[in-house]
Amino acid sequence: MITFSLTCESAHEFEGWFRSNDDFQAQKKRRLVSCPICGSHEVEKALMAPAVSTSRKQEKIALAMSAQQREALAQLKALSEKIRENADYVGDKFADEARKIHFGETEARGIYGEATLDEAKSLADDGVDFMPVPVFPEDRN
Predict the structure, then answer these.
(1) Whether this model's pTM surpasses 0.85
(2) Which of 20, 69, 75, 117 would disulfide-bridge 65, Cβ 3.0–4.6 Å?
(3) Dihedral angle over CA of 78, 83, 89, 95, nearest 10
(4) Dist. CA 81–CA 104, nearest whole Å
C-alpha cells in the first residue's frame, strides 16, 4: 500500500491509501476519491516528502549534504538536545501547560511536548511565546 498526500479544490489536505498510482488514478476517474472534509471529487496528489526508513538510505542522504549543511544539521540537533535537557516534558498537555505559565497560573519553567495545529494556533492567538522543536529519527526510540 502507498500513502498519498491529497488535496482538494478547496485546499483541504488529507491522506489516502492505494495499491499503486494506477489504482489512485482509476479510483479518481470513477469519482471514488473524495475530500473527507467537503466531499469534493476534484482531488489531486499533493507534494510529499519521501519516507526514509533504513539507515542505508539515511547514509545516502547524509553524503548528499555539503559540509556546511552537515554542520547546520549538527547545530540544530545540539540545540534540540539542549532544549530537551533543560525543560520538562509535558507530553500532549503542552498547550495547557504553556497557557498556564503564560498567564501566571503555574511556575515559569521551560517545557516541551506535543500540540496539535489547532492548539498551536490558539496559543499564538493568546500571545503565548513558543516555537516548534525539530524531532530527528534518533529521537523516536
Answers:
(1) no
(2) 69
(3) -120
(4) 27
